[in-house]
Amino acid sequence: MAETVTIPKKEYERLKKKDSVDTELLEDIARGIKDVLAGRIKEV
């Protein structure tokens, strides 16, 4: 059974925003790695 924790709404919203930013960052990094592996990156 899961525990219930009560936190302020502001804290919840901050954590949700951070989660979405972290997920977006990881997706961008994964796309970048795939581009490198596929040779779609040019050295500048």
Write structural notes for this entry.
The protein is an all-alpha fold and 44 residues long. It has one domain. It has 1 helix and no strands. It has one helix spanning 9-37. The relative contact order is 0.08.
Brief synopsis:
The protein has one helix spanning 9-37. By secondary structure, it is mainly α.
Q: Average pLDDT value?
A: 91
Q: Which range best describes the helical content: under 10%, 10-25%, 25-40%, 40-55%, 55-70% or over 70%?
A: 55-70%
Number of strands: 0
Uncertain spans, ≥5 residues at pLDDT below 50?
A: none
N→C terminal distance: 54 Å
Strand content: under 5%
Oligomeric organization of the protein chains: single chain
Shape: elongated
Rg (C-alpha, Å): 18 Å
Question: Which characteristics define this entry?
Answer:
mainly alpha; elongated
Helices and strands in order:
Layout: H1 9-37
